[in-house]
Specification:
single chain; 234 residues; alpha+beta; 2 domains; two-stranded antiparallel ribbon; rod-shaped
Length: 234
């Protein structure tokens, strides 16, 4: 027992390290991209400085029309500066959004991988059932802490499987039909029992629960894949 516990703890720590390293890498890459982008953006006052340089190098531009042109260029430079400043804000917001989106994607990806591993482990080992209570009066089955409302036919099917499991028996489709109907197994159809199993699984609803709870053993029949000591019938 200690080895699986240690392995699970190590796996959890390894997963946390992967998430932390991934988040740090995303933040570092986007921060570097932001620095390079902002460094290479033109200065907001570059246009105004160029206009001032033009008029400083041309002393002959002293007429009213030249002064008017200077004012228009200066206003254009101011507008350019405002637009460039707004672009900086937009770029910053987009970078923050991209960072959050990538971090969320990484977390979701790791979560999905972890869930897939858990489902694979469950599929490999079966459902760990600590209690299975079948209440015929209520047409309910209580699986651990989960309650399932079943039809009367589904309850009969599950009860027959539970009784067979307590006797370490495996029921074929014909045997199952015989137990429920009281007929001889030779007079029952294999397909009828298989239909009852399918309806039971459909009634349980949760595919993972139903497929793992009711095992189909090739060329032998059906059985409940749980410890018989946890079964109780009311």
């Amino acid at each position: 027992m200690p080895e699986p516990s240690t392995s699970a703890t190590d796996s959890l720590r390894a997963g946390n390290r992967v998430v932390a390293i991934g988040i740090a890498a995303i933040v570092a890459i986007l921060a570097l991209a932001a620095v390079l982008l902002f460094v290479n953006l033109p200065d907001a006052n570059a246009f105004n400085a160029r206009v001032e340089q033009i008029f400083a190098q041309n002393n002959a531009l002293t007429s009213a029309s030249d002064i008017k042109l200077l004012e228009i260029l200066a206003q254009s430079g101011t507008a350019f500066s405002d637009v460039l400043a707004s672009y900086r804000v937009v770029i910053f917001v987009l970078l923050v959004f991209a960072t959050g989106l990538l971090i969320a994607s990484l977390v979701f990806l790791v979560t999905i991988i972890a869930q897939n591993r858990r489902i694979s482990a469950i599929q490999a080992t079966g459902i760990q059932v600590s209690s299975l209570v079948i209440s015929r009066a209520e047409n309910m089955v209580y699986l651990n802490s989960l309650g399932f409302k079943l039809t009367e036919a589904a309850i009969e099917t599950l009860s027959a499987l539970a009784e067979a499991r307590m006797d370490d028996d495996i029921l074929s489709g014909a045997d199952l039909e015989a137990v429920i109907t009281g007929k001889s197994a030779a007079d029952c159809d294999e397909a009828a029992g298989a239909t009852r199993i399918k309806r039971l699984r459909d009634t349980l609803g949760n595919q993972l629960v139903s497929e793992l709870l009711v095992k189909n053993i090739a060329r032998r029949g059906y059985m409940l894949a749980i410890d018989k000591s946890v079964i109780r019938m009311d």
